[in-house]
Amino acid sequence: MSRAPRALIGAVLGLGLLAGCSSHDSAGVQDGGSVGGTMVKSAFGKILPGKKAAAAPAAPSDPASLAAAALQSIQGPVILVTFEAGGASTVGAMRGENGAMRTYQTPDARAFILRDGLLAGTRGLGRDLMSADTAAAGALIHARKAGTAKRTYRYLDGDGAERPLPVSCTIQPAGMVDQGGISAQQVAEHCEGSGVTLDLSYLVDGNGTILASRQWIGPALGYVAIQQLRN
Amino acid sequence: MKRITGGIATTALLAGMGLAQPAGAESTIAWSIGTLGAPGAIDTPTAEVFRDGELVGSLSGYQGSQRANFSFQVFPRLTATVRYSREQGLDAGDTLKDRSLDLHLQLVNEKGWRPAFAVGLRDIFDNGIYASEYVVATKTLSPRLRASVGWGWGRLGSDGSGGGTRPAPSTTGGLNSEAWFKGPSAPFASLAWQATEKLTLKAEYSKDAYAAQEAAGEIDVKTPFNFGVDYKINQIASVSGYVLHGDKLGLQFNIALDPRHPVAPSGLERAPIPVAPRPARTTNPDAWSTDWANDSTARPAIQTAIADALRKDGQVLESLKLSPTSADLRISNETYRANPQAIGHAARIATRALPASVETIKITLVERGMPASTTTLSRSDIERLENGPSTQIAAVAQIGEAERGAQGYTQTAGLYPRLLWGIGPYLELSPFDPGEGLHADMGFAIKARYELAPGMIIAGEVRQKVLGNLDEVTTTSTSTAPHVRTDIYEYQKHGDLALQNLTFAAYGRPGKDLYSRVTVGYLERMYGGISGELLWKPVDSRLALGAELNWVKQRDFDQRFGFQDYDTVTGFLSAYYDFGDGLTGQLDVGRYLAEDWGATISLDREMANGWKIGAFATFTDMSEEEFGDGHFDKGIRLTIPLGYATGQPSLKSFSTTIRPSVGDGGAQVNVDGRLYETLEGSHQGGLYRDWGRFWR
Fold first, then answer.
1. Do B235 and B297 fall into the same domain?
2. DSSP A56
3. Which of A77, B124, B321, B674 has the most CB atoms less than 10 A away?
4. Is residue B11 part of a domain?
């Protein structure tokens, strides 16, 4: 399975937009994306062994034009979320802000909850991430420091009760990426426990803001690539 | 793909989330369903089980034999199967219509080298055409191959040897225990091979002689080998085909409903409105001023804002009490099966509408006009714990008795009178009767509810049959007791504009921890009259006590407005106990419709996802002879929430009660909106059960 390349192409696509490629020239944005993607992919390949590089299949919705349209029509912070399984993309506009937690709502009223850029919940997806403890991992990721952290994901299981899924994670900063005048550091996170193995990754800028990431919703919905189109 | 390395808790979690099982973790969950509806190859059983709580319905048969099986995994190791069957030529040349009950118990699970072992009894009552007893072992040889070997008596050993003559079955409806494990016996064996994810091939060796069927010329047993194939259509449905003893071609259709596999465990409804935190008091002290309380336009504006947002959320703001530091919202949840979800939405909506000085947010659930319970939250906690673990907000939420009366509350304008109505299909089946085939009607039902004021409700339902054959049922009641229920056949013959019920009900809160109901009118299809009920149920108590008194008169069979001669007084004292984990027991003691005295004991298990399965039995002073077939009233009941199948939020559910026999003893009048079931989900036990949805 190839998950990393698509996520990272997306990540740099996000960077391109952040860097001011707001000419809404989707062709140009995609171009930049593929070039940067190769570069980041090779950098990640070194710190995340076992990942195979493979071409990403075409996504059903064109993320680049979706992102461009969202930036034009939405005020305030915007994210672009792409599901690895199926490749569907959607945009989220900030609907609520409570301290470090932001709730982004999609046009079809689903929600992605990010705490300082780390996925802390989803709503309306049927097999939602109900909550996640992200503080310990978040501190390392924002500081771009190596270390270990515990995370707990929580879900409603089939009989309706909330169940925790604890994992232990190792956070490892990697190389820098420079793109369109913005430089950001790659951070990888590897988690194990409760019968799952997760590989998460982030692009973090000098202020500790997560510009793009590959994060995990849960056993049923898998990974998503999240790009901060506008912060 | 993800590497999955085990861990029992996670395995259960992953199973609940529809992910593939790690091989071997639940190795004895049935791969295939036998022709008698229990875990099995074709005719022979295996030592497998269904998932705990799973319901498996199957229709199987070949030319000359049809069976409708309904299996339920009562406990993780006990499977019960009830069956309705038609076997041509077995009733002195005619078709034998029969019902039967099987029990299958897995003694030990598969572990390491050890196979799973099970013991079972088939068709344990009455004439026992399928009567067999067996012990069987099942071993998973590879992730795709399973083998079972066992020894059977009765039908399964009928082509075997030894054991002398098997005692004849009971013909009076009793247990066949004298014949169990007696008479000729024989080994049996089977193999199941999962060729692909969808396709399972089966072969078995069975020494069932099919003696009676062969004598009737219905089958010609050529070989002890049977072969079959299962095709899994989806998670729920499968079809099987089989060749029986080299002579007959059989077909089977299976539906397996696992309560732990809803379409969408967390629901597909839209995301809730997020919390709006207040500005910091230090930087923005003006926002925290209480001057708004003196502004006459502020309160109506706040109430309108909350009411509008709740209406869009599928809830009703009944009334609101505001002070500079607290807000009491009375809400009717008309959308979410789990009340904590409704409370969570209301709390978040309140944070967006209330001035910053309001720190205490109280949310009172209103059930049929009755304030049922109040959840008190501090606004700081809502802000601090938003989207965290539900246990954290549970720890700071206080759930207690709701204030009675409306003192200080402002009712939301324009709520009453309120008309709600709907139209939908209905399906009605004839009672489970071995002498008659299955008869059924389909049609549509119109339901309406007109609420005059909080707790004052006029409700009714009319049904119109479109097609069906219930009017062709020839059974009539031969009961010597007053025909309080056995005339069901007569009522079922009238499906044209049948008034199911039409009542006026008034609900109230006469005192602390007390709830009341009075219902007048056409209470149910067979009875009209007046029904009164009083319930003592503290919000945080496991125990509840109730009293109900009814005067009822039997309605005409056509279910219009007329009455028959029979009238009676019936009533009960009831005790309810919440054992935790969704298990509730109920004991009713009193006088039943046929003026018999006695008690009903019931046990119901409700999951947080809304599935409810229960059993009940009633023992009265009516003699077994007078009751007739079945000796006493008993049955099982099942409720499946609509959201299980759709993933959408809904209070609607599908409910059914299955009684093996209909008698006139131990019968209670059916009144809609009894107090315990009305309040259960709003009190502490029900709220904590469903609390995981607070932030959903």
1. no
2. P
3. B124
4. no
For residue A93, CA distances in Å to A78, A115, B258, B386 come to 5, 15, 37, 19
User: Are A126 and B4 an interchain contact pair (Cβ–Cβ within 8 Å)?
Assistant: no
- Residue B586 and residue B372: Cα distance in Å, rounded? 20
Report the candidate in B276, B365, B351, B271 with the shortest Cα–Cα distance to residue B317. Answer: B365
pLDDT bin (cut points 50, 70, 90) of residue B395 is: very high
Residue, of B143 and B169, whose pLDDT is higher: B143
Q: Check CB contact under 8 Å for A163 and B391.
A: no
Q: Is the pTM of this model over 0.90?
A: no
List of residues 6+ apart from B283 with CB closer than 8 A: none
Whether residues B219 and B293 share a domain: the answer is: no
Residue of B nearest to A125 (CA): B268
Q: Are residues B554 and B660 in the same domain?
A: yes
Is B175 an interface residue toward A (CB < 8 Å)? no
Tens digits of pLDDT across chain A (231 residues): 333 333 333 444 444 333 333 323 222 222 223 323 333 333 333 333 333 333 334 444 688 888 999 999 999 999 999 999 999 999 999 999 999 999 999 999 999 999 999 999 999 999 999 999 999 999 999 999 999 999 999 999 988 889 999 999 999 999 999 877 889 999 999 999 999 999 999 999 999 999 999 999 999 999 999 999 999
pLDDT at site A4: 38
CATH superfamily of A4-230: YmcC-like (2.40.360.10)
**CB-CB neighbors (< 8 A) of A98 in chain B:** 274-277, 383, 386
| Residue B646 distance to chain A (closest CA, Å) | 10
Q: Answer whether residue B696 is part of any domain.
A: no
For residue B4, is it within any domain?
Answer: no
The number of folded domains in chain B is 3
Is pLDDT at B201 greater than 80 in this prediction?
Answer: yes
pLDDT score for B84 = 86
**Is A111 in the B-facing interface, judged by CB distances under 8 Å?**
yes
For chain A, the 3-state helix, strand and coil shares in percent, each to the nearest 5, are 25, 45, 30
User: For residue B279, which residues of chain A lie inside 8 Å, CB to CB?
Assistant: none
What ipTM does the predicted assembly reach? 0.82
Report yes or no: A184 at the B interface, CB cutoff 8 Å: no
Q: Which two tokens stand for residue B418?
A: 């309120």
Domain residue spans of chain A = 4-230
Interface check A107 vs B, CB under 8 A: no
The answer to whether the Cβ–Cβ distance between B5 and A105 falls below 8 Å is no
Q: Which of B387, B609, B687, B694 to mutate to test binding with chain A, by most A CBs within 10 Å of its CB?
A: B387
Q: Which residue range is the domain that position B529 belongs to?
A: 454-682
- Write down the pLDDT at residue A38: 30
Q: What is the per-residue DSSP string for B519-540? A: EEEE-SSSEEEEEEEEEE--TT
Interface of B with A in 264-323 (CB under 8 A): 264-277
- Using the beta-carbon criterion (under 8 Å), do B386 and A121 form an inter-chain contact? no
Q: Let me know whether B504 and B653 are in one domain.
A: yes
Residue of A nearest to B11 (CA): A195
Q: Are B310 and B185 found together in one domain?
A: no
Q: How far is B606 from chain A (nearest CA, A)?
A: 10
Do B469 and B406 belong together in one domain? no
Instruction: Answer yes or no: do B243 and B294 share one domain.
Output: no
* Residue among A109, A128, A165 minimizing CB distance to B10: A165
Q: Kindly report the CATH number assigned to the domain that includes residue B379.
A: 3.30.300
Amino acid at B178: E
3-state SS, B347-383, equals HHHHHHHCCCCCCEEEEEEEECCEEEEEEEEEHHHHH
Spatial separation of the C-alpha atoms in residues B533 and A201, rounded to whole Å: 61
CA dist A4 → A46, A56, A65, A203, A208 (Å): 12, 9, 22, 13, 22
| Residue B111 and residue B250 in one domain | yes
